[in-house]
Design brief:
The chain has one domain. The C terminus is likely disordered. With 125 residues, it is mostly helical.
Length: 125
């Protein structure tokens, strides 16, 4: 059995997590700036209820072939104010949306926490 280099893992997390959260923050700022009325209207229609949000999330995951990317996009859209936490939570399953709860960034952490909590039935609207 191969031993895991704990120091390399810890340094990788310490270096990678802030870089990841910085990227999510940049993406949210760009989405806020570039999102037009058509995108906002489409997102509102695509997430009118939990079933529609689930269908949209499932289709997005199938097209992108990555549930992790779908979760990151939903967190970014919630952070950018283009989706509410409740509408965004329907696009992710409870199993996959619990992962971003471990993120630690001021605004992104708040969005991820709201998203995770709302996927378990809390309401913030």
């Amino acid at each position: 059995m191969e031993q895991v280099d704990l120091q390399a893992v810890v340094l990788g997390v310490i270096a990678g997590l802030p870089l990841f959260l910085f990227g999510v923050d940049l993406l949210a700022r760009a989405m806020r700036t570039l999102a037009g009325d058509r995108l906002r209207a489409w997102l509102a229609r695509a997430t009118t209820n939990r079933l529609a949000g689930l269908a949209t999330g499932t289709a997005t995951t199938a097209v992108l072939n990555s549930s992790s990317l779908t979760v990151v996009l939903v967190i970014t859209l919630v952070d950018a104010g283009l989706l509410t936490a409740v509408r965004g939570s329907a696009s992710c399953s409870a199993r996959t949306s619990a992962l971003p709860c471990q993120a630690s960034s001021s605004r992104s952490m708040w969005s991820a926490g709201r998203l995770c909590c709302s996927s378990w039935g809390c309401s913030y609207d």
